[in-house]
Amino acid sequence: MAFTKESVEEIASLHGEPDWLRTRRREAWEVYERIGLPDRSEEEWRRVDFKGLDLETFAAFEPANGAAPGLPIEGAAGVLQQRGSQPGQVELEEELRRKGVIFMPLSQAAKEHPELVRDRLFSEVKADRDKFAAAHAALFSGGTLLYVPDNVEIERPILGQYWSSGGGAAILPHTLIVAGCNARFNYLDEFLSPSLDEPAFTSGSAEIFVGEGAAVGYVSLQKWGRHAYQFANQRAHIAKDGSARIFNVTLGGRFAKVRCEANLQGHGASAELKGVYFASGDQFFDFHTLQDHQTGDTTSDLLFKGALEDTARVVYAGLIRIEKGAAHSDAYQANRNLVLSDHAKATSIPMLEIDNNDVRCTHGATVGPVDPMSLWYLESRGIPTATATRMIVQGFFGEVVDRIPFEQARHLVEEELEARLG
Amino acid sequence: MAVAPKINVGDDYKEKYGFFDPEKFVFKAKRGLSKEIVEEISWMKQEPEWMTKLRVRSYEIFKRKKMPTWCADLSVIDFDNIFYFLKSTEKQGTTWDEVPEDIKRTFDKLGIPEAERKFLAGVSAQYESEVVYHSLHQKLTDQGVVFTDTDTALREHPDLFKEYFGTIIPPADNKFAALNTAVWSGGSFIYVPKGVHVDIPLQAYFRINAENMGQFERTLIICDEGSFVHYIEGCTAPIYTTDSLHSAVVEIIVKRNARCRYTTIQNWSTNVYNLVTKRAVVYADATMEWVDGNLGSQITMKYPSVYLMEPGAKGDVLSVAFAGKGQHQDAGGKMIHVAPNTTSTITSKSISKGGGRTSYRGHVKVYPGANHCKSFVKCDALLLDDESRSDTYPYNDVDAENVTLGHEATVSKVSDEQLFYLMSRGITLNEAETMIVNGFIEPFTKELPLEYAVELNRLIQLEMEGSVG
Q1: Using CB atoms and an 8 Å cut-off, which of residues 385-404 of chain B contact chain A?
Q2: A357/B385 CB distance under 8 A
Q3: What confidence score (pLDDT) does residue B335 get?
């Protein structure tokens, strides 16, 4: 039990990782040991309550066990299935393999394709960001590399599925996506586990490198069981004229702290950051988003929408940052919260830091109950209150669900939300 | 296209507001701050013992409190290099003729007497630390309205004073509130009795004339049930090579069904640190409105706040900030919903130019049990060139049920289409930009009395001239 230096070595040995990766794990471990838990007087952690989380109690990895459910979508061009902390099983269409697409567990990729992995891994999601990120970098297990070479377009989506059978362990997959120039594809990550009583320490971090002119759609669907504490960092690095469409779905876990960030590095780069969440029971979700316009002629569009029930709590804090030279940037940021119960609580903090005048930046945030006028209108047409409320919530989600980059994921998310609405 | 005449804004400021008279004082405390100086100030003013004790206690709190670090760098303020008290003339004038000639000249340049002659109900002008001139319409006096400087109020209305002073902003609230409570001098004291509507705005003007001077005025306004008052303050200081500090505390009590409006036009010179705590508590069905314009100063940190204590209370902050070269305007507002069914709005308009930085920093807090509250925050920022910066930091904490909260913000430059349209009508670029900026802050100016609106437009024009070409 508990995270130790030995467990770091053991994970590295278990997967036969090359020395450079082992060194990197050790460095992250040193950071983990050096820094304490985040100070709750810091602005980012002020509202985050990780009471009940004890990092000392988790096993560093979990062997594959238990039966995973079927695949969430059909007709994927490639599938990686990870069970517990073990590197996953991969299926990939032969034609894509011929075109040079690489899709494999991260430990294998580190050995076979260090040129793709070495400089990128943890360069966007840094180990020293906080203690949880350090734990993730030191003890990440399994994970995925997807590399799509220049000019390759993939019609059907690629799928990663990460299943954990239960609690008590750290499940820390890491997704690394590298898109060559003008590559085009969609990717879905699904994280799930049954609901057990024992807590689990999970992530769902992703680094996405979008090459020049490339277009990448990335959907992460988080359905960890209600015992899980999730700390995830998703960050896209977008080169000239590249576009990333990132869609975050957070439904599971007792606790989720998710950072979703776009690093707009090249002229003409664009990012869509969209999110949908449904928090019920005593769930706590915290979202931190960043639209970092490093250079000019860049566009970003963010919309996070969610509903809250029971005594759930949600914190959204987002920042648009326009650097000095980033002229002709256009940024939008909105967070909408529908509070369905008297005891649920949503906090929304949209922030701007603008260092260039030739820009257009707008943001908005709302927190409120179901609009009584809309409800009254529907009821006056003879629709019962419960149905009317449900229709309004569906409509509320519809605006953002329509923006999911590909159809299969759209249907999937619609079904998931339906199930949550009951 | 005609090129606008190039005017150096700094020079112009000096001519218009930057005049300084040779310091004339009957008493000037030593540089720096100590328990003895605090006691000396109190002794000079012949204050009752409780006030002396409060000052000394506040000084201890001030020493203990850490400097805030969450905003601009304030470590450059050298508390030992500041004069904390200066008494500029021996007695207060009650009519204009009695005010000493040189001080009168200062106010003449500021345009106060004309305004007074025309329509002002009362003028109270603070020169350095003490209020030198003060008058109030007989009618208002008959109605029981008290409008005087805070020192006089302590002498003449001790009970009222003691009941409210320091209850809204206790000395321990923050480091600068503690400092102010220790060394406060001057400011306005207003009491409006039940049901009295003061139809004409009450005005005060604050000015720093000496170098390294600290201005610590203290204002206390009490609006009794069903009353109404509009208070307006203006602030300026001449330009000196070393920095001055302005750290005021404003406390307002708005009782049931009353309404209070507090308007500030702050135009300190660009080496003044302007660190002000302003707070109002509002009771059932009463309204508090802060109209806050920040043009001058090097650094301003000011967040007028409203505590909504009982159902039906309403709070409103309307804030305009203009930051030019070397300036940082960190302004905003706070709305603290303590009771259910309370409403609040914050509207912020900011303009940055020539490397200036404006930040909106706001806080909307809804306490548990304060159900069915509504709050809306809107921030618009205009960036006039690519050296300037604008930030928005709205903090929202909702702990109650059925609360509706909205926030919106935009940041943009002056639109090319609008400029093109105006210029195609033969208007120069400079004039066109000034018109657009004046249009941008129009929701603010239209809330001001006419002469202040005119003054604000002139100030904006002054700031805008030479910005292009």
Answers
A1: 385-386, 388-399, 401-404
A2: yes
A3: 96
In sequence order, what DSSP letters do the residues of A146-185 get, joined into one string? EEE-TT-B-SSPEEEEEE---SSBEE--EEEEEE-TT-EE
Q: A354 and B408 in contact by Cβ < 8 A?
A: no
Contact of B327 with B270, CB cutoff 8 Å: yes
Check residue B469 and give its pLDDT: 30
CA distances to A298, B84, B86, B126, B210 from B28, rounded to whole Å, are 58, 8, 4, 16, 10
How many angstroms separate the CA atoms of A422 and B288, rounded? 45
Q: Mean pLDDT over all residues of chain A?
A: 92
Phi, psi of B312 (to 5 degrees): 85, -5
The alpha carbon dihedral of B379, B259, B51, B126 has a sign of: positive
pLDDT in tens, B24-55: 555 666 677 889 889 988 988 889 999 999 99
Chain B from 236 to 295: CB within 8 A of any A CB: none
Residue of B nearest to A312 (CA): B399
Quick one: average pLDDT of A368-395? Answer: 92
The pLDDT confidence band at residue B302, using thresholds 50, 70 and 90, is very high
CA of residue B463 relative to chain centroid, distance: 20
Q: Is the dihedral of CA B42, B44, B45, B47 positive or negative?
A: positive
Which of B397, B404, B411 is closest, CB to CB, to A352?
B411
The total of other beta-carbon atoms located within 10 Å of residue B420's CB is 11
Residue type, B324: G
Name the residue among B395, B402, B413 with its Cβ closest to that of A357.
B413
Contact A133, A127 (CB under 8 A): yes
Query: Which of B350, B379, B396 should we substitute to test contact with A (largest number of A Cβ atoms within 10 Å)?
Result: B396
Q: Where are the domains of chain A?
A: 5-266, 370-422
Query: B314 or B74: whose pLDDT is higher?
Result: B314
Q: What is the pLDDT of residues A60-76, one digit of tens each?
A: 888 887 777 788 888 89
Handedness of CA A9, A12, A13, A17 (dihedral sign): negative
β partners of residue B315: B288, B344
| Chain A residues close to B401, C-beta within 8 Å | 342-343
Contact A369/B at CB under 8 A = yes
Minimal-distance CA residue of chain B relative to A363: B409
pTM of the predicted structure, to 2 decimals: 0.82
d(CA B75, CA B92): 36
- C-beta of residue B190 within 8 angstroms of C-beta of residue B147: yes
- The C-alpha of A60 sits at a distance from chain B's nearest C-alpha, in angstroms, of 36
Rg (CA), chain A: 21
CA torsion through residues A374, A375, A376, A381, sign:
positive
Lowest average pLDDT, out of A246-260, B79-93, B164-178, B434-448, goes to B79-93
Q: What angle do CA B222, B224, B225 make, to 5 degrees?
A: 150
Does the beta-carbon distance from B386 to A327 stay under 8 Å? yes
Q: Which residues of A touch B324 (CB under 8 A)?
A: none
Measured between alpha carbons, how far is A195 from A19 in angstroms, rounded to an integer?
Answer: 37
Query: Quick one: average pLDDT of A43-55?
Result: 85
Search chain A and give the residue with CA nearest B395.
Answer: A349
Residue pairs between chains A and B whose CB atoms are closer than 8 Å: 101
| B 2-41 residues inside an 8 A Cβ radius of A | none
Nearest to A151 by CA among A98, A95, A213: A213
Closest in B383, B385, B407 to A354, CB measured: B383
Neighboring chain B residues of A367 at a CB cutoff of 8 Å: 396, 398, 403-405
Rounded to 10 deg, the angle between the A131-139 and A19-34 helix axes is: 150
